[in-house]
Design brief:
It comes from Salimicrobium halophilum. This is Hook-length control protein FliK. It contains 26 helices and 15 strands. The protein is α+β, with helices and mostly antiparallel strands. The protein has 4 domains: 150 residues, no CATH class; 97 residues, OB fold (Dihydrolipoamide Acetyltransferase, E2P) (Beta Barrel); 121 residues, no CATH class; 103 residues, Four Helix Bundle (Hemerythrin (Met), subunit A) (Up-down Bundle). The strands form 3 sheets. It has an 8-stranded mixed beta sheet, with helices on both faces. Helix 14 runs antiparallel to helix 20 and helix 20 crosses helix 21. The chain starts with a helix and ends with a strand.
């Protein structure tokens, strides 16, 4: 980013990127005595936070000192390292460094003093590690990276340093290009291969048909059924077919192809592929089930000649055939139906719906007080988290308004079952609520469980090569693919579930490291460093707020550089960002509009949009897409409150437009 745009992007962030320093035993930090208390106690200002401390010597109020945290419980026990006349903490710092075997030359003392002046805590071992990297590194980013490591309380290790340095010296899109140079390095149909092909266009990863066949075979051999379940929910497979019969026949046909290969008449790859083309599913023995599926074309109707209810017209050619548009549309429709519901939200909804049935399907007698209170509280939480808005967002305007009105009325109707209530819920009101609940239930039935979401994304990425999505949906798909398949959440999954995470690009990159000093291994190592940096610096949390800094390859928008996104907002009761009140910043470096910052402020689900850019033609471009943005926000359950276009220096060039929609750059709609 250039200096002006970069400063603007960071200044627009509302959550300060500082957290209270961890004052563990042995840490050294600069502090100011704010108040003196009896019994050698004091209030010390450390990094903007006032702490109650126990002191070993008399100090002067308002003076700065260099402290070291001593072992012990609350209050924190602070020891003054040296009580220099005039409060010269630099002399104290130099003496402390020398006493711990560190050379206090110009470079090391300047770095330690920078930490001290910034009131960033450190200990002797950390400082020694930092000095070693400071003296050996040739990167111009060395001091800034080391300061960030201390500031964010990251481990002071060479691996962390290399990860952060890599992320500051290169772009994600450059690393992906290097990785794909000379052909994709990953196994066909793996998540790493699918993600790479979605970011960097390449013909080297095989056809869609080959990838689909290979993926089904891989899962059958691993006794897994994720793809089968996703494709069945999409309507590609009949609902009566069982995963067991599907798997057994896939394995049988694969075995037949291997046996055929022993004759030596064809290569293993050709035999396996042709064998999969001729896959057959045994006849169903139970009455009422679907007829025999004769081959792969009919089991997975991918070819353009396939039509439901018709047989296939021969086996696939050796080079494979892409999905039919009909099959791709089924998978894409299932992808479109998925709502951004967390596992906790789904669980809370299920509990709330069960309580609703107990409340409104019995007679007119009063309900247990505990049930009534729990139902109303669950309803309040779902309202506060915006869960109901997510459920109604895909509905048409009239239907959405009607359903939302009924949902808002439900707790008032429930309170009529209170023992102290003299009012009664009418039959008409109950019928309206039950109709609304039926619609909610139908919407939830289209949702896949979290365990299948990544698999759906994989298959949707494959369909893009046959039936391209609209640009707005393609952006959503590519961002979701990067989030779900990169492996940035592998360690978090391992910690939370104590189970091995699913294969990802990160696991694929780790495997490539075994190739030694090849260009592919070096590209994999650099990309791993970048991923590790993103994991360590992506989120920041305070008691009341959350902040996420995300970075995506520029290829997703055909941008010149990586896409930077900053999301921050108040915490919900479940610890997530409140979607009704949040702040989103985009940094884009586009081919025509160049550097652009988009500032989205959400207040009570009203979106205030401000665009910063130097291009003279931007006001006209922005104004021509107003209807698209308005409709897009409404479909997502939001409304456009205002829109402004400003020069990069901050001067407004377009007056604020109340209730004006859409901003579209290179055909891309940005929606909350």
């Amino acid at each position: 980013m250039n200096t002006t745009i970069q400063s603007m992007f960071h200044s627009l962030q509302k959550v300060q990127k500082v957290s209270s320093p961890a004052l563990s035993a042995g840490k050294v930090i600069n502090g100011k005595v704010a108040e003196l208390l009896p019994k050698n106690r004091a209030i010390v200002d450390i990094g903007g936070k006032q702490v109650h401390a126990r002191l070993e010597t008399s100090l002067t109020k308002g003076q700065n000192y260099l402290f070291q945290v001593q072992p012990g419980k609350e209050p924190i026990h602070l020891k003054v390292l040296a009580n220099q006349p005039g409060g010269d903490e630099t002399v104290s710092l130099q003496k402390w460094m020398q006493s711990h075997g560190m050379k206090a030359n110009n470079q090391t003392l300047a770095f330690a003093k920078m930490l001290m002046d910034s009131r960033i805590p450190f200990n002797a071992q950390e400082l020694k590690q930092a000095f070693s990297m400071l003296q050996s590194s040739k990167s111009p980013q060395t001091v800034a990276v080391l300061k960030e490591m201390f500031e964010k309380q990251l481990p002071i290790r060479p691996s962390v340093f290399h990860a952060l340095t890599t992320s500051k010296q290169t772009q994600l899109q450059t690393l992906f290009n290097q990785l794909s140079k000379g052909g994709g390095p990953f196994q066909l149909a793996s998540r790493a291969s699918t993600l790479l092909s979605s970011i960097v266009a390449s013909d080297s990863n095989g056809s869609v048909q080959q990838a689909a066949n290979q993926k089904l075979m891989n899962e059958a051999q691993a006794n897994q059924s994720q793809s089968f379940r996703v494709l069945q929910r999409a309507g590609v497979f009949p609902s009566t077919q069982s995963p067991g019969s599907f798997r057994s026949n896939v394995l049988q046909q694969g075995q037949n192809s291997i046996i055929g290969n022993l004759s030596g008449s064809k290569s293993a790859q050709q035999n396996l592929f042709q064998g999969m083309q001729k896959l057959s599913v045994s006849s169903f023995s139970r009455s009422g089930e679907q007829p025999v599926i004769k081959d792969m074309n009919q089991m997975l109707p991918l070819t353009a000649t396939h039509r439901q209810g018709q047989g296939t017209r021969g086996v696939l050619p050796k080079n494979g055939v892409d999905f039919s548009a009909e099959t791709a549309e089924k998978i894409q429709n299932l992808f479109r139906q998925q709502l951004p519901l967390s596992g906790k939200e789904t669980q809370k909804l299920s509990q709330w719906m069960g309580q609703f049935n107990r409340m409104f399907t019995s007679g007119g007698e009063s309900r247990p007080q505990a049930l009534l209170q729990s139902f109303v509280e669950n309803h309040r939480q779902l309202m506060t988290q915006g869960t109901f808005q997510k459920l109604t967002a895909p509905m048409s305007g009239t239907e959405r308004s009607s359903i939302e009105k009924v949902i808002n009325q439900i707790p008032f109707e429930a309170m009529k079952f209170s023992p102290n209530s003299r009012a009664a819920t009418s039959e008409d009101a109950i019928r309206m609520m039950q109709a609304a609940m039926k619609k909610i239930h139908q919407t939830l039935e289209t949702q896949l469980p979290p365990s299948l979401q990544k698999t759906l994304t994989e298959w949707t990425v494959l369909t893009e090569k046959v039936s391209p999505l609209p640009l707005q949906e393609r952006l959503l798909l590519q961002v979701r693919a990067f989030q779900q398949m990169s492996g940035l959440d592998d360690e978090a999954i391992l910690r939370q579930n104590n189970s091995q995470p699913e294969p990802s690009m990160k696991t694929g990159l780790l495997a490539l490291l075994g190739e030694g000093q090849t260009p592919k291994a070096e590209a994999a190592r650099n990309l791993l460093h970048f991923f590790n940096s993103m994991q360590m610096t992506a989120s920041q949390e305070t008691a009341q707020s959350l902040q996420f800094s995300l970075q995506f390859p520029g290829q997703l928008l055909e941008a010149r550089k990586d896409i930077h996104v900053n999301v921050e907002g108040k915490k919900n009761e479940d610890g997530t960002i409140d979607p009704n009140h949040c702040h989103i910043l985009f940094y884009l470096d586009l081919e025509n509009l160049k550097e652009t910052v988009i500032d989205l402020q959400v207040r009570n689900r009203g979106v205030h949009v401000t665009v910063f850019n130097e291009a003279e033609q931007l006001p006209e471009v922005a104004g021509s897409f107003e209807t698209k943005l308005k409709n897009g926000l409404e479909n997502a359950g939001y409304s456009l409150a205002s829109m402004q276009v400003k020069a990069g220096r901050g001067e407004s060039r377009v007056e604020e437009h109340k209730q004006t929609p859409s901003i579209n750059f290179q055909g891309v709609d940005f929606r909350v």
